[in-house]
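Record 1 of the preview.
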Amino acid sequence: MTRTSLKNSLDKNQGVEPAEKIFDGLVRGKTVALVAPGVIESDSGTEIDAHDTVFRIKFNGRSAMPDEKFVGRRCDITSHNSELLSLAQIDPAKSQEMFKDASDLKLIVAKRGTFANSLGVPTHSMTLWPPTFLTTGTSGTLALFETCVKLPRLIKLFGFDFYTRREQYNPRLLELYRSKCFTYSVTLPSNEFEFGLSQSGSSKIALAFIAHDLKSDFLFVKNLYELSGLIDGTPEVLEILNLTADEYDMRLEEMLGDW
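->
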């Protein structure tokens, strides 16, 4: 179903359905595959697409996704930073570029702000932010918490590495993020996403620690996993969630290297 036909069907049914109601219908009592933009090395595509709902964090169209055998094809929900959505809101061409090849996209989740249907897809603004200790939770934690609030039957995490890998995004998404067109449109330096084995790359990763308290973020998700009964993950994800706090610290130090 295309976005246009989705909108038409809703218009015929007493106007455009509120985004909150769409979100509730996609999540409550459902199995949700929550797919991070990190690296997925196992053939998880079939399993991801078999969930009732597929929620992809920072989805930028299928052209910016790895091979389907790793990550699947479906995308019912995506979430983005409000700053990027604001740029897309005032630039229809950018909005079309962000969500091209996304005919099954039903909902966008924004961190904050009001977008209504100005992006061509109903947009839900987050209502509750997770109580991480020092700073804002990462995009993955925010999406996870917002989904938990709607009481799904199960959330399975794919591609979550909790910043224990140097490359924070999969190669296809990095290709987009490193393009001059993208960095120019969001007014970022051309080398913003260079996280390689160098002092410069390590310093860029370390700067991210200022914006996000990664340890409290990790512990928050770990507690949800251990106590809620709502969360599952691939073996790679669960291996990290089963680390102690000190072991997680050591993993971050190993990732940063000697710089």
